[in-house]
Known about the structure:
Helix 1 (3-17) packs parallel to helix 2 (34-50). The relative contact order is 0.11. Strand 1 (22-26), helix 2 and strand 2 (54-58) form a beta-alpha-beta unit. This protein has helices at 3-17, 34-50, 62-65, 107-113, 116-126, and strands at 22-26, 54-58, 75-77, 86-88. The protein has a domain at 1-71: P-loop containing nucleotide triphosphate hydrolases (Rossmann fold). The longest helix has 17 residues, at 34-50. The chain starts with a helix and ends in a 6-residue tail after the last helix. By secondary structure, it is an alpha+beta fold. It contains 5 helices and 4 strands; from the N terminus they run αβαβαββαα. The strands form 2 sheets. A two-stranded parallel sheet has the order 1-2.
Amino acid sequence: MSLGTKTSYGLRQxxxxxxxxxxxxxxxxxxxDSFTIYKVLNPLIKNKMSEECQIFMVTHNANFGINLDxxxxxxxxxxxxxxxxxxxxxxxxxxxxxxxxxxxxxxxAIFLEGSxxxxxxxxxxxTIKENK
Length: 132
């Protein structure tokens, strides 16, 4: 059994069997393909959320960070040497905290997709072109 299959199985068990009012997941995407995250794990997590379970997750995967339609997303920004980290909330609204981002990139696009430009390049390669 592959590491991804083992991890996916373990996560499914942990999420399904959680009886607490909260759940902590630290980078659950490690070793798991994006299709499994989107089709298998996201529905389980959404189900837990609907059961009034508060979920705290650290992730770098957009399939978790965006497609779960969470109530809030927080980024810990470690670029300020005067503080251990800055918490950045309301990510869809905050656009001015990174010097390298374009005016069109949200922090979500930068941290979970690599940037809007990166997402557009991937979409171009992933889109099936119709034969004419």
